[in-house]
């Protein structure tokens, strides 16, 4: 066996069902441990999962929380296999990406960059941006940005973190912020020594969600289809969290094409994205933009008559026809209700599977409500919940989780000498 460097550019051949995309990547890296398992949830004395028992629903988890180690794991590594291959192929030496303070995407990007010898720059949106700056100017050693959750790993791999406020992010938009930092870093006056060569900076959009990153989830669909083939299972619903839209684009477009190609497969499952920010129209628009970026050709999905395609065949309608987006943001992005947090803990107690408060926990909590509100749509069905990772986000919620944690887990002084 030869050990392969993570920098090896592997020529990419797309699965045949994906021939409807004209914009196909040249290369991919191997960064993730694939395939991730499909795991059935055993309903043992469940309370939060009681509706599944009552309705005879089988819940299967696609464990993309297991794609890689803690520092690289979750859904983003699949996208990074394509994005960073492009960065290496283009001869870039640094990468900028952007996200929230506890961004899983930024943490995974920074880690992967270091694995392949690129320099990571993260723009993190934080309500503490001004505070951090003010404290710094008073005391050079002050480090109030902290080390909690994803930030610990961002810092362990030596990322340069550039903070901005939510207001700046909202006003200027993430592409403009990324471009502005890129201009700074590439400018000849930027602290690059004379003998050092000019930086060449690769830009990755928020969540890695563009046409190229989405190939990670086209590949994930191929992996999933092989798993279904080998176990002869019929799936009725596929459910996952959606934030920047790339995962939803890959799973919905990929599954639609894979089932369309494979006549032996029983009917296409219903595909549900649970939006953890914004509103459903934002997701339909974003996914339509991604599909166009991938240069999708949907003509063969519609019948022809008199040389013309029948019915309204816009890409946006195609996306809307094959994906149901649910509103799941609750209190807003990264803000949790007590019920959502209780659900995450109780789910972990009953299944041994840890969700996160920002994405997977919110999405499954919301989808359980959907099942309770529309029981007849789900009775006797088989549902796959695609767990996209994010468990480091729980660290930031420890204060809010504390009471529930104390009620499910006790800590006792052990009677080591048997005196009681
Ligand atoms: C853990 C986790 N799950 C789901 C998502 C949503 O994926 P996407 O941004 O592709 O919609 C993210 C995005 O940051 C994430 O970190």
UniProtKB/TrEMBL annotation:
<dbReference type="InterPro" id="IPR036052">
    <property type="entry name" value="TrpB-like_PALP_sf"/>
</dbReference>
<protein>
    <submittedName>
        <fullName>Tryptophan synthase beta subunit-like PLP-dependent enzyme</fullName>
    </submittedName>
</protein>
<keyword id="KW-0663">Pyridoxal phosphate</keyword>
<dbReference type="GO" id="GO:0019148">
    <property type="term" value="F:D-cysteine desulfhydrase activity"/>
</dbReference>
<dbReference type="InterPro" id="IPR027278">
    <property type="entry name" value="ACCD_DCysDesulf"/>
</dbReference>
<comment type="similarity">
    <text>Belongs to the ACC deaminase/D-cysteine desulfhydrase family.</text>
</comment>
<dbReference type="InterPro" id="IPR001926">
    <property type="entry name" value="TrpB-like_PALP"/>
</dbReference>
<dbReference type="Pfam" id="PF00291">
    <property type="entry name" value="PALP"/>
</dbReference>
<feature type="domain" description="Tryptophan synthase beta chain-like PALP">
    <location>
        <begin position="47"/>
        <end position="389"/>
    </location>
</feature>
């Amino acid at each position: 066996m030869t050990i392969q460097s993570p920098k090896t550019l592997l020529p990419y051949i797309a699965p045949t069902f994906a021939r409807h995309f004209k914009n196909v990547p040249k290369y991919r890296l191997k960064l993730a441990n694939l395939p991730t398992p499909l795991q059935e949830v055993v309903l043992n004395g469940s309370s939060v999962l009681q509706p599944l028992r009552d309705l005879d629903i089988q819940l299967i988890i696609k464990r993309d929380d297991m794609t890689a180690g803690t520092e690289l794991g979750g859904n983003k590594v699949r996208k990074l296999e394509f994005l960073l291959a492009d960065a290496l192929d283009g001869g870039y030496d640094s990468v900028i990406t952007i996200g929230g303070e506890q961004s899983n995407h930024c943490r995974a990007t920074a880690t992967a960059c270091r694995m392949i010898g690129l320099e990571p720059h993260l723009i993190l949106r934080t309500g503490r941006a001004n505070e951090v700056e003010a404290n710094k100017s008073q005391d050079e050693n002050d480090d109030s940005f902290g080390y909690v959750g994803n930030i610990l790993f961002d810092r362990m791999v030596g990322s340069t973190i550039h903070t901005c406020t939510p207001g700046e992010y909202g006003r200027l938009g993430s592409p403009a912020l990324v471009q502005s930092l890129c201009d700074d870093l590439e400018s000849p006056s930027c602290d690059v020594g004379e003998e050092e060569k000019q930086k060449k900076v690769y830009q990755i959009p928020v969540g890695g969600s563009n046409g190229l990153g989405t190939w990670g989830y086209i590949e994930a669909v191929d992996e999933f289809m092989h798993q279904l083939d080998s176990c002869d299972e019929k799936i009725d619903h596929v459910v996952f969290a959606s934030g920047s839209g790339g995962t939803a684009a890959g799973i919905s477009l990929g599954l639609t094409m894979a089932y369309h190609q494979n006549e032996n497969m029983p009917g296409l499952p219903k595909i549900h994205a649970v939006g953890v920010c914004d509103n459903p129209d934002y997701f339909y628009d974003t996914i339509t933009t991604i599909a166009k970026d991938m240069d999708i050709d949907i003509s063969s999905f519609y019948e022809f008559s008199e040389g013309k395609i029948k019915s309204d065949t816009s890409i946006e309608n195609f996306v809307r026809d094959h994906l149901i987006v649910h509103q799941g943001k609750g209190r807003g992005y990264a803000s949790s209700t007590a019920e959502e947090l209780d659900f995450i803990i109780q789910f972990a107690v009953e299944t041994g599977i840890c969700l996160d408060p920002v994405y997977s926990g919110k999405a499954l909590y919301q989808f359980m409500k959907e099942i309770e509100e529309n029981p007849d749509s789900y009775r006797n069905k088989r549902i796959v919940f695609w767990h996209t990772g994010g468990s480091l986000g729980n660290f930031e919620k420890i204060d809010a989780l504390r009471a529930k944690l104390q009620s499910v887990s006790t800590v006792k002084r052990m009677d080591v000498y048997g005196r009681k």
